[in-house]
Structures are given as C-alpha cells and as structure tokens.
C-alpha cells in the first residue's frame, strides 16, 4: 500500500511545505514508503507523547527511552527510563527543541526506577508534570512535579499521589476548569494486581486469566484544586460494546491495555487507549468525563515496535495524532515520536489511521 507521500504529486507536496512555513502545522511525510511520517527529533529516543499547547507553543511530554541492557519481557523490563526531557515547537512546526533534563529519578525521594509515560497540565501560573515510577517496593505509583515553565525544571512532590498506583497518567482539564486524571495499564503496568483493592505482590503478571470476565478497566479521579492529589475515590471507567455489554478479557482487539487519553469534540468525550498485545490504538465515546464509554473502532493500526501510545491535539482547526514507532533504532525500547493529521467524520467517528506500511512491526 502506498503512503500519503506517494499518493500526492510533488508540486502539491511543495505547496504543502510552503503553507506549513507560513503558519499552520502540517505533518512531515516520510520518503520511506514503510512509514507515513518522519521522527520529530533524532538527538534522543522519545516515546509515549502527550502533546499540549502552552503559551502558543506545542509542548510534548514524552518518555525518554535509553539503552539500559534490560532483557525484554512481558513486564517491560527493557523500559528503564531515568529522566524526562520535554520537546517543544512553534505552532507551525518550526524551532523544534529538545529541552534539558526537566526531572531525574534521582531527584524524587520515593521513586527508584522506570520513568514511564508522563503527561502535563497548567493551572494558575504553574505547570504540573504527572509521571509513573516504581517505588522501593517495586510498585508503580504516580507522582507530580511543578514548575513555572512548561519545559521545567520540575520540582517533585516528596511523596507519590496518595492512593495512586499503576502507570500512564493523562490529565484532562475540562471546559469548566475541572481536572481529571486518567491512568492505568495491565501486565507491566500492574493494574491486574490491584483488582482486590490493594496490591497483590504475588498477583498475575498478565491479564486476570478469566477470558469471559469483563476486562480490567482504566481508572479516573477528579484532581484537587491544587492539582496535586486525587479529590475523590478512584473510579473504574466502563468500556462497553454497542449492545451495552462490557468488553471482555478475551476480546484482545478491543480490551483496555494501557495509555488512556481523553479529548473532546463537539461535546463528545473520546477515550482512546492501547490494546497492548494486539498493538492497536482504539477509541470509545461517552457524554461525560467518567463514561461509560462505548467502543467505536480502531484509531491507529499497529506501528513498528511492540507499543502503540499516543495523544491527540487540536492546532488551529486541525486535529493531530502524536504517536511513536521505532524507525530510527529498529528496537522496541528505543522509540521516536511522530505526528500525523486526522479528522472526525460528520457522525463523530474517526477513520482508522495507518502510519506504518511495513511488515516487521512485531519485535
Ligand atoms: O514507555 C513505557 C511504557 O510503554 C508506557 O508507559 C506504555 O504506555 C508503553 O508505551
């Protein structure tokens, strides 16, 4: 299959590049037919991009992948990240910048390892970086760090967020100013070990193992006014099929695995997430931040590399999907962030995106 680069003529491409330099962000198309887009940066390896606009500039809060020598396994032993470096660019895609280290695991008293997928939010002059890390007992918790600049440096809170667990925090600030934290991930993200309400250190390393049971669900909590803690008891977010039935554990193409993300379009809330071992991004819709959400379809087909993790961002009138693959390294734990355009159809659905056209994606 041809990618978008080859489906448009060269003169059109030149026009699109010149429009880009005049204002509107446009995706960077890859001359390699296996990939739709080019990596945003190549100085460092970056993954799990959470994109936001702050002060008329796009900031991307990403995992900073490194080679640690960890042997790949189903718990993510090969992802041993130790710091965060924020990426940013102008709204037209110019001046792409890799900022200095904004937070190191050594700076966080409670955190011992695994700076996995982060997100950020802004309120009243302060930027908040939300991140997962393993504590001294090897349990994933969520932390918050603050800064007066979007790129940091960030000052961490001395303790993890009370009652937090698992991975992949994503903070959504609704139109009324209410902020919600979405999070969770199974397998290496440990969510299956919290099904009883407390951490089971001998719990399963994977799904709960009961195929016909409802799948494990992502979590949500409203954030406190100071953005530093949960303001309420954590709730599970239901993901239903179109008949109103829960998506089941055995439904690997549709069940939640990790990487929850929320955006709103025409009053509808879109919960998108990774299906993990089936390598898809999926999306479901609801009419309020807590759900229930009804499964709608695939958001992005598998990328090159095992993980598929993303965010969405509206720049002007155009929606973008920020995602990652492994084009530069060919290794699943050394990823690179990219972005592409998408649109919502008249009926609110989103056509599945395809950003990888090769066939060596599962490694
Ligand atoms: O980057 C480490 C982990 O890989 C993330 O937390 C997951 O979402 C997956 O992308």
Keywords:
single chain, 363 residues, mainly beta, Tachylectin-2, Chain A, 5-stranded mixed beta sheet, 4-stranded antiparallel beta sheet, 2 helices, 5% helix, disordered N terminus, binds beta-L-arabinofuranose
Radius of gyration: 19 Å
Overall mean pLDDT stands at 93
Give the total of beta strands. 20
Q: At the first level of CATH, what is the class? A: Mainly Beta
**Ligands, deduplicated:** beta-L-arabinofuranose
CATH evolutionary superfamily: Glycosyl hydrolase domain, family 43
Structure annotation, total helices? 2
The number of domains: 1
Structural class of the secondary elements? mainly beta
Biggest sheet: strands side by side, in what order? 13-17-16-15-14
For this structure, the CATH topology is: Tachylectin-2, Chain A
Shape: globular
Element string (H = helix, E = strand): HHEEEEEEEEEEEEEEEEEEEE
Distance between the termini: 21 Å
- Give the fraction of residues assigned to helices: under 10%
Residue stretches low in confidence (pLDDT < 50, at least 5 long) are: 1-21
The biggest sheet, with number of strands, parallel, antiparallel or mixed sense and barrel status, is: 5 strands, mixed
CATH architectural grouping: 5 Propeller
Description:
The protein is mainly β. The protein has one domain (42-342): Glycosyl hydrolase domain, family 43 (Tachylectin-2, Chain A), CATH 2.115.10.20. 5% of the residues lie in helices and 34% in strands. It has two helices and 20 strands. A five-stranded mixed sheet has the order 13-17-16-15-14, with no helix packed on it. Strands 1-2-3-4 form a four-stranded antiparallel sheet, with no helix packed on it. The protein has a four-stranded antiparallel sheet with strand order 5-6-7-8, with no helix packed on it. The longest helix has 13 residues, at 10-22. It starts with a helix and ends in a 21-residue tail after the last strand. Bound molecules: beta-L-arabinofuranose (FUB). Residues 47-48, 63, 76, 79, 116-117, 167-168, 185, 258-259, 307, 309 line the site of beta-L-arabinofuranose.
